[in-house]
Structure formats: C-alpha cells, structure tokens
Amino acid sequence: MNFLHTLSDSKNWIINHKDQLEINWSEKDIELHLNKETSFNIYLLDQTNVTGALIGHFLYQDHKVSEFEILHIAVLPKFRNQGLGRMILEELEKQLKSTGKSVKIFLEASAVNKFAIKLYEKLGYKAYNERKNYYGSNPINPSSLQDAILFAKTLNASS
C-alpha cells in the first residue's frame, strides 16, 4: 500500500466515487476544498488503484502547535473490513507527529456508525461532545435524524 497527498486528477476521482465514499459535497465544494492552502489529504493506493481517502485541513498552525480537522475518511466498499481505514488514520498521525508540533486532531461520526466509533476509540480518540439531530436533517422524516459524536486526539503533547 502507498500513500499520496495528491492525485493527478483528485477532483475527478472524488467526484466519480462520491456515492461509494458517501461524500455529499457538491463538485464546487470539492474543488474549493482541494484548492485551499490549508487542505491536506491522503489517498491510499494498492498497486494501481486508489482504495480510500482522508480529506482534511488545518484549522490553525503556528511554529509550536497545529489543529487539524478530518472532514471525511472512507474506503471504497470492496476494500472495507481490511483495516485500511485504520491504516489511513495511522498514516495521518505519523505525518502530523513528524512535524514535532503539538497537534490536535478533530473528527466526528454519526452516533449510529458503531464501526467508526470503535476504530476512533481504539486509536485513542476521545469523545468530547455531541450534536443532537445533526445528520440527515429531513423535515419529512424526522425519525431519520442522527446525532453526531465529536472526537479529538492530541499528538506530541507538551508536558
């Protein structure tokens, strides 16, 4: 497995796999993210194919600390349940640790996504808040609303 920060055509790859990756961003939102100076993405490849991605950005950076937000992490369906999501998160942490800065990573998950929650907790992410009825705002079917659980983890923390 290899990791890349850019693909020759990352915008089209994301757009072409939006449904499989469960990304609900518009094409314009994807393009805006990819063009941001603070954008930092990781793509996981097997020998030739991209199998998953982490889409994120730096919220804040100075010479001692950084804050990073994971906006989306996903593995294509046929590659799931092989530990690839874990590999992507571990690669992100490795790269962020290598800066020597104290880094706080933020992410969120739907409260019904038990697989993601279990993974985040195994990797040391701590739940710190909850957003009630955050996902699936659907006035026609309010029973489809889902809570979001917010997680954070600090790397290279100063004592």
Kindly report the name of the CATH homologous superfamily. Gcn5-related N-acetyltransferase (GNAT)
For the biggest β-sheet, the strand order reads 1-2-3-4-5-7-6
Provide the helix percentage: 25-40%
Q: List the uncertain runs.
A: none
What does the overall shape look like?
globular
Largest sheet features: 7 strands, mixed
Can you offer a commentary on this structure?
By secondary structure, the chain is α+β, with helices and mostly antiparallel strands. It has helices at 10-16, 18-21, 27-35, 84-97, 114-122; strands at 2-4, 39-45, 50-61, 65-75, 102-110, 126-135, 146-155. The longest helix is centred in the middle third of the chain and has 14 residues, at 84-97.
Quick summary:
The chain is of the alpha+beta class.
Blueprint of the fold:
Elements: E1 2-4, H1 10-16, H2 18-21, H3 27-35, E2 39-45, E3 50-61, E4 65-75, H4 84-97, E5 102-110, H5 114-122, E6 126-135, E7 146-155
Parallel strand pairs: 4-5
Antiparallel strand pairs: 1-2, 2-3, 3-4, 5-7, 6-7
